[in-house]
Amino acid sequence: MGANMVKKIKRNDPCPCGSGKKYKNCCLKRSLDHKMKTPIITLKNMAEAAKLHLNTLASGVNSTKKIVVKSIDMMNSILVATFCPISKDSMGIKIEACQIIAYLSSLFDGEEKLGELGEFGITHFSARGLDDNDDEIMYVVSSKESARFARNGQSVEWLTHTLFQDNTDENRLSQAKVRISRVEKGLRSIISYVLKNRNGIGWWRNVNIRVREGAENVYLNKYGVTTLPSGDELIKYTFLPSLKKLVLDNWNDFKHIFQDVDIFTNDMDRLNFIRREESHNRIISPSLIVELEEIYKRLLGSIEQEIPGTIPHFLIENWRIELAKIFDDLSKNMVELAPEDRKDLKVMIEKFQRYRNLISDLKHKLEGLTIPPNKKKLHSDLVDIVTRSIAALDKAIIASKIIDIKGIENAGRDHERCMEELNDFKVKYLLSEI
Prior knowledge:
Blueprint: H1 27-35, H2 43-54, E1 69-75, E2 78-83, H3 90-108, E3 124-130, E4 136-143, H4 144-151, H5 155-160, E5 163-166, H6 169-199, H7 209-223, H8 231-234, H9 240-249, H10 251-258, H11 261-279, H12 286-306, H13 313-332, H14 345-367, H15 376-401, H16 405-430
Parallel strand pairs: 2-3
Antiparallel strand pairs: 1-2, 3-4, 4-5
């Protein structure tokens, strides 16, 4: 046989690749498959495949049990995996959520490379944990960028770059303790402030005798002394029913602060009920947390109007610090659109989309912050600027895809105006005293 002659492989011959299969069932079959039409990739079938795979994984909190994912759905631009956590505590649920988001990040990362049919528009991955009654107890959302931390095993980085809405029993109890404590401190401050202004430094001697003696006895029993401090110190040993009585006994002095005596009375009664539940470490229901939040905003907001700075300074300072971090992250990850990029439509659309994802992530982070009651309006104005910016970027992306130059320019100007407003906000409220 000549050196240049090649033996023809028959269908039933052993495959020359060494697989041990017949040629017709191995390389020939693959060759034929490649000539067939490529299957259509859809979000639905990829999500279903992801769900099936996730349900085979061992839970990170209990290796004897499997992760239980009920569904994976697209909600706006967020791919949401709804699951039933094995763990019932906050950190355990976060561990399972991290597993789920890590897998989704791995599966859908680089989706734009799949071609037109693979561009699902995913900007965030989310894991939504439900309890046995199908009530949401945890909502976790990561941008595509922060999800990569989960995928790479960088759990600390993932935790610090991810938004959590924690509705577990332990988190609600913790929230209740913090809010009730702040309201109590605020009420003591306003009572001391108002009555001292009316009666002078000896104001404590003029309050209800049962309230006064009750607080004094608590103080004496705690410290075993015979000398009592001033009323500014003794009022710290009163409880909610006593604080309510001090205000109602002197309603004319407090009317301009709390406005409606019936609303104030009801708020104090409900606050005391929730206080008893919290002090005995009973479960604080989601409805009670909502009610407590309204009472918290109403009472502390009224007190803050009378005595600016009564709300713990760290609340405002923490809000300012968190805002500064969010804006710093945005500036570090800013996507620049160079003049040469405008010549390549694909590059321009990709950069618009990346920047839109960053702004969307900014909005999610802003909505997840704890906002001081007296900064609600200011924070709402900030979120509105970001929302309008996202809308402008969406218009720019659509206009780019249909090569609508005028539409791109108009949307770009709208976005630039929003960025100017955002910059003004940073200068006015982050780089100066709040």
